[in-house]
## 1
Amino acid sequence: MSMAEPRPLTPSPVAERRPVYEIERLSKTYARNRLIALTDVNLTLHKGEFVSVVGSSGCGKSTLLKIMSGLLPPTKGRVVLEGKPVTGPRVDIGMMFQQATLLPWKTTVENILLPIEIREGRAAAQAARPRAMDLLQLVGLGDFATVYPGELSGGMAQRASICRMLISDPAVLLLDEPFSALDELTRDFMNMELQRICAERNATAFLVTHSLAEAVILSDRILVMKPRPGRIVEEIVIDLPRPRTLEMINTTRFGEIVGHIRDLLGKEAFV
Amino acid sequence: MTDAPDTQKEDTVWVEHEALIDRIPRWVAMLGLFVIVVAIWDLATARMAWVSPIILPSPGETFFDLIFVGKNLIGGEYMLVALWTTTKTVFWGFLIATTIGFSLGVLVGETKFGERAVMPYLVAIDTMPKVAFAPLFIAWLGFDIASKVALAAFIATFPIVVSTAAGLYAASENERMLFKAMGATRLQTLVRLKLPTGLPHIFTGLKIAAVGVMAGAITGEFLGGGKGFGALIRQSASQMDTPRVFALILYLSLLGLLLYFTVVWVQRRFVFWNKSERPGGVG
């Protein structure tokens, strides 16, 4: 099936081209086993841009994400967010993991307010409650605010964790395979939700994923990484129009891009 | 019309056979077992006299003594004083064990110093037969309640240390990373993540401690005398009053059950999110 109806081409948010996140000459060597996890990684994220990184296991993409989030110090190089070097975890970095990791003894809304509670205390968290409720509405969980996570499905839990990431209004979203634990249909749906949320907030996002299709459908650019040593081997600009739809997966252009990446990764993806 | 009716269109009826034990209520099963055991007991003692009454009294004798002790307890006589003494011992022993055990558990589970330096000593002490310390406690603290409290607390502390330390390790890598990414301090991570996550473990330790503290208190009273229930039991045993011993033990077990189920009740209030409890509410 081809693109049946001509869709109005929305101007890419990349047009603004204001750099938000700058990574220069980044290297990471694990001293213990002298493993070069990353070597000479250069990367700039612009305001409103969605960038993905794909690569086989061990290519250093998780290490890259941890360094970007301030959870791991780099061996060499610079990481700068909004003009300030990243030297540790920061309020303006939003993170999402493969597991929703909601605390089972807190209700959904309390979980979403957790980052504020940790940084600014209970009173501030209480004050931010209306904002948390708005976020829950945004992801369609409005009726589940006072429910405990044990009663949420996997997809709902991840939507709640999206809210938790957004509550501190971060400058950048770092997404570590956020939907890979979900079933395929839920995952497709969540990807479309993520696109909508990012578009509404003009969010700058960085996604690490194993799924080529997911990377292509969401991204403005894809970075292809290879291991030993971990490095970026190619940058691919995705020229599919926005907003993206799941139907685009069946287009020739989509297939071409996925095929190209698969060729790039080659056999290494399977070893 | 008569030949071959629509048998093929009828649904197959599956009859699920439930085992007999699944069909009868729990209390009926418990009562049934009780009746069987008492019947055999009665047969062996009162009816056939296979067993001497000094070794095992008949159910009837035991029941008579249960009533006697019960009356004494309700009447507020010396047995109530004894029960109250033992209750106090158990209470203070449990409180001290919980306080020290929890503190040491946090030290071991949260700090490298505790894990590397303190834990080996705790393991070494834990492997000792703790009852053997009873004479020491009596020498240090006298024949009053304090030496029994010390022994009870000493026995009950270790399970709490171990379970608290294990509980603090229970938080997943993802949860720790989340807290780190939120910029949580070490104290915040401990109080807001590790301790709540570890609560089910901690309560398991408290339940083991509840059993241990009873054993410690009674052993202390056996060895150190005093006014407690343990001393009463020993006294009755030395007079070959076996039915009385049985009756006293049964009342004592009520105290143990009370403590145990208090812990279970508190756990239910605090760990409402943990549904992996053993069936029947015993776990």
Note: The first helix of chain A runs from residue 61 to 68.
## 2
Amino acid sequence: MKMIEKDNSRREFLKKVGLLSLGTVALASCNSSDYEDFLQQNFKTLSKEEKDEIVKNLEKRYSEKYGKEFHVSDKAAKEGILFGYALDISRCVGCRRCVYACVEENNQSRDPQIHWIQVLQMHKEKGIDFAHSTVHYNPEIVPEPGKFYLPVACQQCRNPQCTTVCPTRATWQEEDGIVVVDYNWCIGCRYCVAACPYGARHFNWGEPNVPIEEINPETHYLGNRPRTKGVIEKCTFCVQRVRKDEGHYPACVEICPVGARKFGNLLDPNSEVRYILENKRVLVLKEELNTQPKFYYFFGV
Amino acid sequence: MNLFRFFIGSLKIIINGGRLYYSCIFFLAILIIWGAFGYYDQLKDGLIMTNMRDSVSWGFYIGNFTFFVGVAAAAVMLVIPAYIYDWKSIKEIVIFGEILAICAVIICLSFIMVDIGNPLRFWHMLPFIGTMNFPSSILSWDFFVLSTYFILNLVIVTYLLYSHFYNKEYKKSIILPLVLLSIPAAIAIHTVTAFLYNALPARPYWNSALLAPRFLTTAFCSGPALLILIFQIIRKTTKFEIKDESLFKIAELMVYAMFIYLFFTLAELFKEFYSDTEHIIYWKYLLMGVEKNREIVIYSWSSIIMGFTAFLLFLIPSTRKNLFTLNVGVVLIFLSVYFEKGITLIVPGFTPDVLGQFYFYIPSETEIRTAVMIFSSGVLLFIFIARIAIAILFNGFSIESLKKK
């Protein structure tokens, strides 16, 4: 405990050094809240009080900006939970309802467009083959004959390469297995985009744009709170929903019209994902890269 | 007081010059301003002004960064032959090589700064005041070796010029270990930069053990190429002496590097094309294009043709030992490596992306203008520092000359 305090006071001191050396740049062009943002430390290193303070300020700022009451949670992972996901390839019809439910739930930018879920259309006779797949399919009716669909989002790897390469520790795997990003700490170098084998990381190339009437005010600090330009974002298994005490499903699981998406606690032997692992044969994408996803694909029928 | 006088004196040196010098500075200034207005758009609206997107998330900026790491590394490499062959002006060669290295590292860091989404948060990756992800992230290693290299070169150059300025003998016991240390540091910056890409199993195009060796061999070509030109200019305008033979020797060393590069590349191509796995797609995009999309092909083939021509020019003794053909070769190999590192190393790594989707990238106007801004500023910086160094080394700019006034 003592060690931690010592570390904090050093951090405090260094924070001030940082203030002196770098603050002048920020001072010249920023107002006070920008200034606070600029000096904010990595979320993981903050004390409970500091987190509460930041969350309170964010709620106030977002409420003012969007004209409705905002909740920003910083609820931590619960012990005994490791989230896992299973997707039934044989049921998925490629309707992309999950894509848009995700966009609405997680306040993804509409223009420029960001989609955390990519649905790949593949040829039945080729099997799972990225090289011959396309995300740009647009028929009147899905599924099309001879085609099947493979939705891909963050695979929530046990051995994530995106967090290893991050030069600033702005992204990490939480205790419950969810890989998250601190949007206030990310410098936007996009090394994680290059490292991710699943295209799960998305960059805010421009200022994100969500219509005020469509914004979802139920947010989590590490999840769907509004982002700024120049930072990375990604699927968090809807951290703002799944960590609630009453335990909601991610938005994509709830919306799926054919019930292809299953979600639950891998450590609970009675969970649905564990049932699937036990009774269906599953596969993970690009297993040769040793990323060890907690996102399983299976053939249910 | 002396420092102040030194600055005033240096300023006078920078300001004074012939018509050619002024037009050169003026031209660079125009380029910098033109580029800065392009960069301003990016500052305002974000990286959306570039043509990079999630599929191709690194482009021209990171390519330029990689190229200039090579220039920085190789400039110092010339110190080795200068020692081995005991060239007369070894001190001067060290000084100009390291001034080039300093400017190249500054260019590198500038390209990183314009590439990141939040330049003001750069301090997050520093140790102590930020949370540097050391030793996991290769980017933190790269930052570490680049700054070490930068400081090393800065100290050597400053010390050598300082002692010359005060008419003191420089201490060999200080300089020699530092210069020797800067050689492994030069290799380190290039190796670590190669590992930056190499370390990504998600990108098969880079995930080859030959990447770092290939990096080093190209660096041995681009850096010395630039120095051959710079030495000729300095030789013409000052008392600096470097014999033609020394230049030819540098060219000869470059031939070895080119040959090894050629061999490594052939080994890579053999493995990829003979195995013919799905990873061949990146090489096909590089060399032939995919369907109608041949954006990269012109760069890769002009790089290959220019590089090969330079190789022949340097290989044949009669063209190597002729200043005209030598200079043609130098320009060709420089451009060849620039195209290779700037475009054809980075972009095919992302095309197609990890989910097999194609996004075809070429730099946008904003990217080109920003790069021109950084490049011209770097050249300007080099000219200024080199002129002060020339004045100190050859034109009697010293503490006495200041005192006399």
Note: DSSP finds nine helices and twelve strands in chain A.
